[in-house]
Amino acid sequence: MDSGMLVPDQVVTDMVVSRLSQPDVRERGWLLDGYPRSYAQAQSLDSMKIRPDIFVLLEVPDDNLIDRCVGRRLDPVTGKIYHVKNFPPENEEISARLITRSDDTFEKVKSRLETYKQNSEAVIPTYSDLLNQVLVYF
């Protein structure tokens, strides 16, 4: 993540499959956010007969996504997330201690976004029969 790369497919897939096998998930269902993000991940789920009922694709302008990540700040004391424009800290004391995550630089966010686009294009055919596309502007 520090280099702007995504976590390897197998690591993420193992975590997702482990969670999906839990009794509460089997009883109440599941919602995955940002997964599967690659063809390999989608195929891993398919091979295990794990298939969603619906697949939602959020389309957001690149500038909005980049701004949200680059403006994000973390309070290391409370763990609370702020945004320099959209959700600024309540006071100067909090503002002074906020940090930027190492992967929230413009270059790294842009790199992740390009990787996401390439990967999501490969995932869409797997779920084309379940696809619901939503355009988001904020």
Descriptors:
alpha+beta; Rossmann fold; two-stranded parallel sheet; two-stranded antiparallel sheet
Folded structure, characterized:
It is a single chain. The chain is an alpha+beta fold. The chain has a single domain (9-135), classed as P-loop containing nucleotide triphosphate hydrolases (Rossmann fold, 3-Layer(aba) Sandwich). It has helices spanning 9-20, 23-28, 39-47, 62-70, 92-97, 106-123; strands at residues 55-59, 72-74, 81-83, 131-135. The strands form 2 sheets. The chain has a two-stranded parallel ribbon. It has a two-stranded antiparallel ribbon with strand order 2-3. Helix 1 (9-20) packs parallel to helix 3 and helix 3 packs across helix 6. The longest helix has 18 residues, at 106-123. The protein is globular. The mean pLDDT is 91. Its EC number is 2.7.4.3.
Task: Assign the structural class, choosing from mainly alpha, mainly beta, alpha/beta, alpha+beta, or little secondary structure.
Answer: alpha+beta
Radius of gyration from CA coordinates:
17 Å
Helix content: 40-55%
Q: Specify the CATH class.
A: Alpha Beta
CATH H-level name... which superfamily?
A: P-loop containing nucleotide triphosphate hydrolases
The CATH topology turns out to be Rossmann fold
As a percent range, the share of strand residues is 5-15%
Number of domains: 1
Spatial arrangement of strands, main beta sheet: 1-4
What is the number of helices? 6
Order of helices and strands: HHHEHEEHHE
Q: Which overall shape is indicated by the principal axes computed on the Cα atoms?
A: globular
Determine the mean pLDDT: 91
Poorly predicted parts: none
Q: If classified by CATH, what would the architecture be?
A: 3-Layer(aba) Sandwich
Number of distinct beta strands: 4
Largest sheet: 2 strands, parallel
Q: What is the straight-line distance between the termini?
A: 26 Å
